[in-house]
Task: inverse folding
């Protein structure tokens, strides 16, 4: 596993973004882990988060694209942080773009924030996490309505690796099949478990045998095949 992935896993735990215990998800599933990207609240955290995204984007899609699109609302700071990090780390000046929830009819009009989309633009979509694919269902038509663009792929921070709406494949796999573009994550839950299981972090075992058994049981029931 690449060193930046290990660092990112520890960063999620350190930032209280990735938690372990007993959680009831919106879907009603009882999960032994929970991710809340809203816990990234400081400049330092956003700076580091942007760099982890930038490295994953570079590893996955290279720099052969023009626009990083962050769906409203959580995707907006992600797109800004990652475009700045891409420029800082790789010297490529990528444009950022996001949508508004409501169309603005005065001043900076329209449904987009940041750069306008142009015919021929190559776009990567950036999100925090995708459980059901609902946000892409809303975002993809907005992007395609603005210009004749090519969506190269989606990048999220964590692949939960559980079944999506179809009940068999993961949400990322469903997105890839439905829309025809790649869908990837900085890390997967499998990598999280691999790195943290019985591996001391700051003097503490984050995933012990009991928690590992609970995670295994969860994936027995909800894991993507």
Result:
């Amino acid at each position: 596993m690449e060193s930046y992935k290990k660092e990112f896993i520890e960063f999620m735990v350190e930032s209280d973004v990735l938690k372990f215990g007993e959680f009831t998800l919106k879907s009603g599933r009882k999960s032994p882990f929970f991710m809340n990207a809203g816990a990234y609240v400081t400049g330092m955290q956003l700076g580091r988060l942007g760099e982890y995204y930038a490295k994953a984007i570079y590893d996955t899609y290279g720099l052969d694209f023009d626009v990083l699109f962050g769906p409203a609302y959580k995707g907006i700071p992600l797109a800004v942080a990652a475009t700045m990090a891409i420029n800082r780390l790789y010297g490529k000046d990528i444009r950022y773009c996001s949508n508004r929830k409501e169309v603005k009819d005065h001043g900076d009009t329209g449904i987009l924030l940041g750069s306008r989309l142009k015919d021929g633009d190559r776009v990567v979509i950036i999100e925090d996490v995708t459980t059901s694919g609902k946000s892409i269902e809303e975002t993809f038509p907005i992007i395609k309505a603005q210009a004749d663009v090519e969506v190269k792929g989606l990048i999220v921070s964590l692949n939960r690796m559980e079944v999506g709406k179809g009940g068999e494949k993961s949400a990322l796999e469903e997105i890839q099949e439905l829309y025809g573009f790649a869908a990837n994550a900085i890390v997967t839950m499998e990598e999280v478990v691999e790195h943290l299981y019985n591996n001391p972090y700051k003097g503490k075992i984050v995933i012990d045998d009991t928690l590992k058994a609970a995670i295994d049981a969860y994936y027995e029931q909800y894991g993507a095949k």
